[in-house]
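input
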Amino acid sequence: MCIRDRYYIKFSYGFGHDLLNYSLDFGGPLEDDYGNYRETAQEIHLNSMVYGKENYKGDLDYFSFTPSISGRYYIEGFNFDTIRYEYDDEASYIQIRDSIGYLNLEKDKTYYISIGNSLSYVLYEYSFSLKGPLEDDYNADYKPEVMFNETIKGTINYNGDGDAFTFIAPETGIYYIESALI
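output
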C-alpha cells in the first residue's frame, strides 16, 4: 500500500444470518528486509554474504544479479525452503544439495533470485552467497573433437560438472576408450 492512497474494504456475510459480530485489526506497515517483487529486488554482488529473514508469513525476498561473464555459478546458503531464479518470464527452481545450488548464467542478462518459505508456520533467518563463475576445462556444451590415439586429461571441476567430447572414427573397426582416475 502506498502513502495517501485510499483503500476500500467491504466485509459482508449473506447466509441467512441477520447479525454477525466481527472485528478487523488494522496494523502496519510490516517490517521487511528485502523487496517482495522483481521491481524491488536488491542487487547482490559475487562473494558477498547476504543475510535475511522471513519477516512475516508469505514473505518473499527478491535479489538481482547481472553477470559480466557467462558461466556456471553457484549459490551457497543455509536455511532455504524455496529458492528459484528467473530470467524474463521463465522461472527455474534451484536444487539445493549440501547447501549448494548451481546456475548457468549468461553475460549481461539480469537474473532474479527469490527466497521464500512454504512452511507458513515457521519464520526463519537465512544467509547465502553467490559465487563463480566456476572454472571448467571441458564443458558439456563444448564438445572438442578428439583424435585416434590421443590422451586427454580433464577434471570434473564441481558437483554436476560433465565433460563431453566428439570422436570421428577414421575407418570402420572396433575402438575402445580407457579411463583412469589420476
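quick obs: The CA atoms of residues 52 and 126 lie 5 Å apart.
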